[in-house]
Amino acid sequence: MSTQATVQTPGQSAERVEQQTPAVGQPYTRNSEASHELSIRVRDLNLWYGKSQALSNISIDLFQKNVTALIGPSGCGKSTFLRCLNRMNDLIPSVSISGLVEMDGRDVNAAKMDEVALRRRVGMVFQKPNPFPKSIYENIAYAPRMHDMVSRKADQDELVEKALRDSGLWNEVKDKLQEPGTSLSGGQQQRLCIARAIAVQPDVILMDEPTSALDPISTATIEDLMDKLKEQFTIVTVTHNMQQAARVADYTAFFHLGEVIEYNDTKVMFSTPAQKKTEDYISGRYG
Ligand SMILES: Nc1ncnc2c1ncn2[C@@H]1O[C@H](COP(=O)(O)OP(=O)(O)OP(=O)(O)O)[C@@H](O)[C@H]1O
User: Quick one: where's region Disordered (predicted)?
Assistant: First the structure.
């Protein structure tokens, strides 16, 4: 068997992807007319928690200014993979990693990579909204100040307003910026966390089941927001909700037992999945 990485790269349209759908184990080739630029390049990525392997030989390209959804049954490695993109797994002592995660041509796991700078460029929003125990204003202003992005109060005010406007929260909070972030509703808190993530002007926002703790209306608001934010940011999101993946994601990667089984244009994956395992999963035969 070949030891070369199988690079999975989705096409751009149903017709093209159908034509290009390769045999199992063969790489997807990218539509040459595609306008999307590469954001993150992953090659032969393996991850172990102690002796237990959680990710196996993952080689995919993630594209700028798109939403990519990671789907798959519980425990298949979606969150682990997401955390590889900004080195959050470094915080877990038992973790060892091999392979390459490259952003703009730079190896994110290189010893000289500044993790703080990396996490500024690759922000993260978690399942449960986790505002700082500070005011709404400070939740946004803190990180840009720490990164020396703003010093003058007027610039800080402007940045806070922009982040809150871009996260669709400004009108709801503009008269109570000094109130605690935790005084907001769950859906508002999650938008505050998104505002906090975008305030440092990242390139990529990682979202780990960002709506699973929210009611349907707040979920719809966040999904609309993701659609707007992808004009400015690359979004990679984990979701258990297949309808959500179908609604928000341009591309979807289906994980199973630590491997990427299929990575495709979302519409293609949900209409004509290339792999039987994908079909079984999205049709609810297991999960
Ligand atoms: N901190 C950890 N230490 C040891 N094993 C872990 C740790 N985190 C995850 N794992 C294991 O790695 C595998 C992948 O877990 P991961 O959380 O990435 O899956 P997931 O697809 O995101 O699951 P879910 O959808 O349930 O959140 C699982 O077997 C899990 O038990």
Answer: 1-33
Residue type present at position 235: I
Q: Which atom of ligand 1 has the smallest separation from the CA of 240? A: 25
Assign 155 a pLDDT band (cuts: 50, 70, 90): very high
Q: What are the residues whose beta carbons fall under 8 Å from the beta carbon of 160, sequence distance 6 or more?
A: 137, 140, 141, 177, 199
* Rounded Cα–Cα distance for residues 101 and 23 (Å): 25
Is the CB–ligand 1 distance for residue 58 below 6 Å? no
In 132-144, which positions are buried (b, 16+ CB within 10 angstroms) versus exposed (e)?
beebbbbbbbbbb
Q: What DSSP assignment string belongs to 24-89?
A: TTSPPPPPTT--PPEEEEEEEEEEEETTEEEEEEE-BEEETTSEEEEE-STTSSHHHHHHHTTTGG
Quote the ipTM score. 0.98
Sign of the dihedral defined by the CA atoms of residues 7, 10, 11, 12, in that order: negative
**Each residue's pLDDT tens digit, 201-232:** 999 999 999 999 999 999 999 999 999 999 99
Picking from 13, 17, 53, 60, the residue whose alpha carbon sits closest to that of residue 38 is 60
pLDDT of 8 reads 66
- Residue 37's pLDDT band, with cuts at 50, 70 and 90, is confident
Cβ–ligand 1 distance for 75 under 6 Å, the answer yes
CA of 49 to the centre of ligand 1 (A): 9
Inter-axis angle of helices 186-198 and 216-229, nearest 10:
20
Q: Which domains are delineated in the chain?
A: 38-105+115-283 (3.40.50.300)
Q: State whether the beta carbon of 76 lies less than 6 angstroms from ligand 1.
A: yes
